[in-house]
Design brief:
The chain has helices at 2-8, 24-34, 56-76, 137-146, 185-194, 200-217; strands at 15-19, 41-45, 48-53, 81-84, 88-90, 95-97, 101-104, 126-130, 150-155, 159-165, 171-174. The strands form two sheets. It has a six-stranded mixed sheet with strand order 4-7-8-9-10-11. Strands 1-3-2-6-5 form a five-stranded antiparallel sheet, sandwiched between helices. Helix 3 (56-76) runs parallel beside helix 6 (200-217). It is of the alpha+beta class. The protein has six helices and eleven strands.
Length: 218
Amino acid sequence: MINSLVNQSQSTFTQLVSLPHVSWQTYQNLKRDMGDHRGIRLTYNQGLLSIKMPSKIHEIINRLLTRIVIVLTEELGLEIVDMGSTTLEREDLARGVEPDTCFYIHNAHYLKGLNPQLPPNLPPDLVIEVDITSPSTQRMEIYQQLGIPEVWRYNPNEGLQFFQLQIGDDYKIFAFSLAFPMLTAAKVNQVLADRQNRSENSVIYDFRQWIKSQSLSS
């Protein structure tokens, strides 16, 4: 079954398959059997297992947003550990999720070497979620439970939005990023729009120059 799902992942549209009444142990066994393959993303929410198969455009946007984050840390002199779609989970909550991309930035110094141990109860500083045709509502609920402070969520209707976790464990949309206070969602959406007609390296170069200009003016 899993092999057939992986073969479908080359579809133009992001696909989502949900399987109810799945035990935590079955979820763990599935992850083990899949190994390090990250062509699909797994989400486990108290017995509901969702299998997300990203499309081509999903991954292009995901990787572009990842480059934007990395360039920001380079130009602002911040540390970063790009954890990709590393599984984030807590058995006591019966929840687990593989984000499109996640980063340790302000807490990057806690992760040492090429194969670091994730500190207990220290979630990534930033998660990227790209919704092309499959909503990330369930995944946002898990990020909330795990205490992820910031989520960048993109969908074709709203574009990119910055979600920040508030006191009381609710996400609220903000114009400015928590991890990068000088950055607005509008600026990132401009980069995404520019990418429609220009090469990725070209728009990233201009974005890098913009960061430098902001640093000089501050």
